[in-house]
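task queued by scheduler; priority normal; single chain, no ligands, no partner chains; default sampling; output format set to structure tokens
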Amino acid sequence: MSESEARLRTVLISYFPMFIATLSLVTAIYNGYLNSKFIDLIQRNLGRAEYLRTCKEILEAHAQVRFRVKILSQIGARARAGGTADLTGARNEADNAHMKFSSLATYLANLLPDARERYTHLSWELEKIIGEAPQLTLDELNKRLGQSDDMFTDMNNDCVRIAKQ
């Protein structure tokens, strides 16, 4: 074996393992980067899925509040017409529906902080409507609910926007 071959062999034996080690290091760094991106993706998707599930629940809760408020209004109309009416059970059911709605709205506001004020105002508005419902006629009640429906539409639009992300 010539001196140049021996020298080449020595260089290859010395530098080839370093080259392999460098490639392994670069691969490990890239793998760590990909794992980090994958974890971020999973966390975003889990958060989004939780938000959308809560959006589904708040739609139902809003419908329940509307339903319970209309029952309160009907009982109040019977009482105004001279009949006997006990508002206690219906009021408790309406308050329960409102509490569920408010807690879901708070949860959504925690996930979407820029909407906190809007969701709080909607919850307050529904609470006022529940308090006034026994004194309101059905037409007056529908007007009041129409105002809260505009605020609820904004909340629903937030849900749609998040779903499209």
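post-processing summary
- The mean pLDDT is 90.
- Residues 3-164 form one domain.
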